[in-house]
Here is the input.
Amino acid sequence: MRAAIHHRFGPPDVLSIEELPPPRPRPHEVLVRVEAAALNPKDVLIRKGRYRVLSGARFPMGSGFDLAGVVESVGSRVHDRRVGDRVFGMLDGFRGRTCAELVAIRADHCAPAPEGLSFVEAASLPLAASTALQALRDVARVGPGDRVLLHGASGGVGVHAIQIAKALGAHVTTTSGAHNLERCASLGADVTLTYDDPATPFAAGARYDAIVDVYGNRRFAWARRGLTARGTYVTTVPSRALFLDVARTAFTSPKARLVMVRSRARDLETIASMVRAGALRPVIDRVLPLESIAEAHAHLETRHARGKVVLTIHR
Ligand SMILES: NC(=O)c1ccc[n+]([C@@H]2O[C@H](COP(=O)([O-])OP(=O)(O)OC[C@H]3O[C@@H](n4cnc5c(N)ncnc54)[C@H](OP(=O)(O)O)[C@@H]3O)[C@@H](O)[C@H]2O)c1
Here is the structure.
């Protein structure tokens, strides 16, 4: 089978398409014929070797955690998936491999693909939408009437976070680049601001029940002045300072928290039901063939993707 791999850490051109033996699914896994795979900043960081401690340095190394495709075979202990099912899903861990024709994935890490979506659209959802869902619903516990600030809301995670925060009943303020203000409003944001001046979201005494630093470059010290007394700051990016803030706010409020996305079939089912209800729609920046994976990585690396970058796998 054809797969995108790299034999060393480095720039996008370390990626190449090579023939590999097909994976064999373990008893709790399904083998998926991948139609589309989405990329995330995590793929870029792994390729560069920034997550070496977590990914290890065993080569060749694959790329991609998100997939959509058709179940080709099921492991002996899988009873809720069948050959021919259209599924979407996401791998956990730090060894990506969905940019390939065949992928073995745990059955409880995928779910039926939302009806009415193409494989490209379905593949764009799992990691980014799960991150947004887990950050807002589980970590910040956003509910109806809450005021939510999403910082860096026009990228892969942010475009889902806007829609999911609205679906949870929140009033949503976003920050983005000036060219993406309209985009954020079209996804449901009530107030759209640019991110250039860190003080802008807190002008005129604005306060939020949840501040999600989607981009990951703002500290708790910045967020604290804009949080309500029982508010929560959630970041997507871990740091030493953050762990200190998390420990310091373990028994006090407002709180500092990190979201660490986990692959869960039931969250994918929630995401699919939001799509069905018209509350969540995929936002695709660009679609490229597997052979253009280096170009796709290079684009994501600019940190100005507008939504998701997706690869089509089969010619
Ligand atoms: N902890 C977890 O489980 C988890 C899960 C998923 C992602 N993440 C992390 O979350 C972050 C966001 O992921 P993503 O997929 O949304 O990334 P992405 O698609 O690469 O984000 C691109 C967006 O970032 C915005 N941006 C660029 N510079 C910015 C700045 N200085 N301030 C604020 N926003 C800025 C851009 O906005 P404009 O183009 O409008 O300027 C663009 O829309 C990444 O660091 C990723 O590694 C963590």
Observations:
- The CA atoms of residues 12 and 297 lie 6 Å apart.
